[in-house]
Every structure is written in structure tokens, then in C-alpha cells.
Design a protein that fits this description.
Blueprint: E1 2-7, E2 10-24, E3 32-47, H1 48-55, H2 71-81, H3 88-106, H4 124-128, H5 132-140, E4 151-154, E5 160-162, E6 179-182
Antiparallel strand pairs: 1-2, 2-3, 4-5, 4-6
């Protein structure tokens, strides 16, 4: 999985994950979780038109979210990315800094999960599997990520939660994927 973003007004390639594991998320059809065997990010992003010229790809045209590549295109892009110095440790340091910022300002490393500890393989089952029933329910209904009242009701414990955005985990009972907008205030 390659990562592209907008940087200084142009779309660029920044790195990749060699995916090891994928799981559907708990809230909506496009919610998912990933784990990588290996990740590599570079300091100087590659503009997508430059990547097209180097790799004989067509990634610089407009796309939103996802652009599929053939296996031979992936190998060529990997070859180009692997020519650059690996700055993954710097990316991970920045993620840790942002998590600590969240912790300082919200009390949680991951506010949408109301989670204070780092994600780990030990916590993955409770973060993912606990929401599997809720995940099935979420796929049967449209899950909103905003509540006009700023209140959410948990389908599991029936308690109200005040928060501007949808949380993945109910802070009262800890169940994942059970909060729904509530008009009651």
C-alpha cells in the first residue's frame, strides 16, 4: 500500500506499507485497520508526475482515496522508493508526538477510542473483536459521525455520552461501535 498526499501544493508519494494484516473496522464500510510487515517513508516526497515518468505509471491523474496499480507497477514504484534514505523512524516519532499531544489536551492518545495506551497486539482483540457484532449492525445502517445535539446514546449500556464527534468506543461500558446520535439533551 503506497501513501500519497498533497505537499506544498502538489500530490506526492511519501512511502509504503508491506501489508501483513487487514481487518474491517467497526463503524462503517470504509473503516479498516492495518498492520505491516515493513514500512518505509522518505523525507523528500516524490511528485506523482515524476513517479509516472520514472515508473511508467499513471498515478498523477485525479483520484480520490485509492488508485490501483498492477503488480509490475508496484515493483517499479517500490524500486524507486527504496532508492531514498529510510526516514520511517522520524515518521513514527511524529506519530508518537501527536499521540502525546492528544493525551495532554484530551486525556487520550486516541480520542475516538477513548484510549490512553498505545495500540498493541495485546489490545487489538478488544479494539477490533469487541466491535464485531456492532460492526455487522453498522453495515446494515448508515452510521453518522456527527450528532446535532452533541450527544450519543450507547446501544449496549443505554448511557448518554457528550462529545462533538463519534467515538469508536463507549467511555461508559467500553463497547466498540455502539454509539448513535441522540436528540435528548
Amino acid at each position: 500500500m503506497f501513501f500519497a498526499t498533497s505537499w506544498k501544493g502538489e500530490r506526492v508519494l511519501t512511502g509504503y506499507y508491506d501489508l501483513h494484516w487487514y481487518a474491517k473496522g467497526v463503524l462503517a464500510e470504509n473503516d479498516f485497520c492495518l498492520a505491516a510487515n515493513h514500512a518505509r517513508f522518505i523525507e523528500q516526497p516524490i511528485p506523482l508526475p515524476v513517479l509516472d515518468r520514472k515508473c511508467n505509471t499513471n498515478v498523477s491523474g485525479w483520484f480520490r482515496g485509492v488508485r490501483l496499480l498492477t503488480s509490475s507497477e508496484c515493483l517499479r514504484v517500490l524500486e524507486v522508493l527504496n532508492e531514498f534514505p529510510d526516514k520511517t523512524a522520524d515518521y513514527l516519532d511524529e506519530i508518537d508526538r501527536l499521540e502525546r499531544f492528544n493525551l495532554k489536551h484530551t486525556g487520550y492518545r486516541y480520542p475516538s477510542f477513548r484510549k490512553t495506551d498505545k495500540f498493541s497486539w495485546e489490545t487489538a482483540p478488544s479494539d477490533l473483536l469487541a466491535g464485531s457484532a456492532a460492526s455487522k449492525l453498522a453495515k446494515q445502517e448508515k452510521v453518522l459521525n456527527t450528532s446535532p445535539s452533541g450527544l450519543w446514546k450507547c446501544d449496549e449500556c443505554s448511557k448518554l455520552v457528550k462529545n462533538k464527534a463519534l467515538l469508536k468506543r463507549c467511555p461508559n461500558c467500553g463497547t466498540v461501535g455502539t454509539l448513535r446520535p441522540s436528540a435528548r439533551g
